[in-house]
Amino acid sequence: MGWVESIQKAINYMEEHLLDDLTIESISRQANASAFHFQRTFTILTDISVGEYVRRRRLTLAAQEISRTNCKIIDLAYKYGYDTPEAFSKAFRRQHGVSPSEARKYIGKLTFYERLVIQVILKGEIPMKYNIIERDSFQVIGIKREFSLVNGENLIGIPKLWDKVNSDGTDDQLGKLNNGQIKGLLGVCVDKRILEQNETMDYWIATEYDGQVPEGYSSLTIPASKWVIFEVHGPMPDAIQEVWKRIFSEWFPTSGYEHAGTFEMEVYTDDDASNPDYYSEIWIPVKYIEE
Fold it and tell me: Which of 27, 43, 32 minimizes the C-alpha distance to 4?
């Protein structure tokens, strides 16, 4: 199954089971991907989380049903996955701007979210610069924090961690300890669901280091991998977010590679990240797609 087909299969599965008790594990299984990597890919491509997509679609269908039937609000609340009518009404108003009872009286305008269809976008006017290397395992040192993957809490917590590291001097300390091949600070994502079957991930802010681990820091071994390294030119965070999106919407579908399922890294050089010419990198472990 191709990359685009596998993502679309997962979306179709969500649509077919919108009224069921969906789990990220059952959804990602349709795409032959880990829950972590499917969620990350989905969010990069759509700018919303899997959970938010399901909520939007359920509330879209609920609004349609309210408009064309006399079904009781309490029955609709339970049908579309809410424990109480109050919770349903609150979510409904947040999306549509009106309450369910107002919608039934045709008061206000409803917000409709169509089901997603993934398409490959082939663009050639802006080239993507990358190279592919193979490296043996190597050590990084730094700090790590555990983040919940539920409701996108990791997407909120990781930027706050970077703010802390940049303000308390940890970034400068790690920069001075850097003695490996990769120059700069690393952001490393470790999907713990693969290792421990739970709903969390570890995020590292680290640097490559060869030697005894200095006091106050932890170490992580990056496994031997074939890496595709994408160049990023431009200020943070917009430039790196744009390249992430292009990687999954343009590069992967036609590359002959798939994600290897191990750690991803972002590399930040020691320059002004707001500079229009700021240089950074995205490192993704890959393997050939099995026919």
Answer: 32
**Is-contact 203 187, C-beta < 8 A?**
yes
- Residue 155: phi and psi, rounded to 5, are -70, -25
Question: For residue 135, what are its two tokens?
Answer: 């490296």
Query: What's the rounded Cα separation, in Å, for the pair 263 and 34?
Result: 12
Alpha helices by DSSP H, 21-49 = 24-30, 35-46
SS3 171: helix
For residue 130, give the H/E element and its range: strand 130-135
Six-digit token pair at 76?
């609709």
Host H or E run for residue 257: strand 257-259
Quick: pLDDT tens for 218-254: 999 999 999 999 999 999 989 998 999 889 888 888 7
φ and ψ at residue 116, rounded to 5 degrees: -80, 145
Tell me the CB-side half-sphere exposure of residue 231, using CA atoms within 13 A: 10
Phi first, then psi: what are they for 82, rounded to 5°? -105, 140
| DSSP H helices in the chain | 3-16, 24-30, 35-46, 50-68, 73-79, 85-96, 100-104, 153-167, 170-177, 192-196, 238-246, 252-255
CA distances to 56, 76, 244 from 98, rounded to whole Å, are: 15, 16, 36
Dump pLDDT digits (tens) for 68-89: 999 999 999 999 999 999 999 9
